[in-house]
From TrEMBL:
GO molecular function: glycosyltransferase activity
Organism (species): Candidatus Magasanikbacteria bacterium CG10_big_fil_rev_8_21_14_0_10_43_6
Species lineage: Bacteria, Candidatus Magasanikiibacteriota
Glycosyl transferase family domain sequence ranges: 206-370
SUPFAM superfamilies attached to this UniProt entry: UDP-Glycosyltransferase/glycogen phosphorylase
Positions of the Glycosyltransferase subfamily 4-like N-terminal domain: 14-194
UniProt name for this protein: Glycosyltransferase family 1 protein
Gene3D superfamilies: Glycogen Phosphorylase B
Amino acid sequence: MKIAHIVCSYPPYYGGMGNVVFQIASEQVKQGHTVEVFTPGMFASEEIRSSEAPQAKTHRAALTEQIDFATRLKPSISYGNAARLPGIGKELDRFDVVHLHYPFFGTANLVRKWKQKNPEKPLVITYHMDTRSPGWKGLVFTVYTKYWMPKILESADAIIASSVDYIQASDAAAHYATHKDKWHALPFGVDTERFTVQEKPVSLMAQLGLNPEVPTLIFVGGMDAAHHFKGVPVLLKALALLKSQNRVTQCILVGDGELRGSFELTAQGMGLGPFVRFVGKVSNDMLPVYYNAADLCILPSLHKGEAFGMVLLEAMASGVPVIATDLPGVRTVAEDGGMTVPVNDYREIAATVEEYFSGPTDRDVWQTRVRSVAELKYAWPPIVRQILSLYTDLLKK
């Protein structure tokens, strides 16, 4: 099959949607299909081939190396991860299946219009997450969700969501209730060959000035305005509470963005300087090593902008149990591989961390359990086979 994916962000931009699409595209190519990913950018098609997906703060920055499968179309207008790609329609005619990853403000409606002109071509939409933002952007999201989102979803032949739990609580719940035959629950996956259980990286810990014998937490996530919902301030409050109770805990925070500086200042103001390390973006090769430096992975997200939590799967595949907030979709992953806590409750995060390290926990059992869950439930190859099977069924209709 010739498959087109359309997504608002893509590696090297640090974000869950783009990395999900990169993994799906990679696996579809491995399984013998031709794949192209359309995403905003300023790059000619001959610049687009490389073997890895490095991380960077923004896909607007000039790249010396491009990413597999990406065709970066010049937007007529863009703001953050929203972009209007006026050339998308003429690109899609040459594909057997078109797969739109929602939300994509500015372009999703262009894909809907393309579908109206090409009703015989299968259109699949993955509904990744609701959109939330403070201020005027939040108002724009609300209006768009009320008026345009139902029309966009209606244009799809099939819609994928990461869990029924999430979609029933999402902004698309009304559409799901009346179109259940269109919806398919398929989790996102993890590269279980890249993320594996390894020995604790003592040399990395020494480089960071951390004690490998001290309980270590890890947070992985964007620290830009688009990822404000990741809840870093809540995590810092939990760490400060543990410190005040003389529960020595250290934390590695992986990720970058314009909010990082303020987070670092907050941590210093709380007296957490000796116990936290903001390491910024890390390379693809090093990210699994960082996970193996940790005993627990924390995802303290604040609202339904977090629909799944890819970092939870990466941690679990690395043998690291997780603590995440009790959000629809996120909890379906966290309950398999760790513990959930109420949203925006730093006291409960601290108490759960304390209970894990002070209780009769067999960490080897946890390590084996969460790795097994990642392998059996979230490995990419069988998940992608189900996506391809869905494509095939649509092509037969």
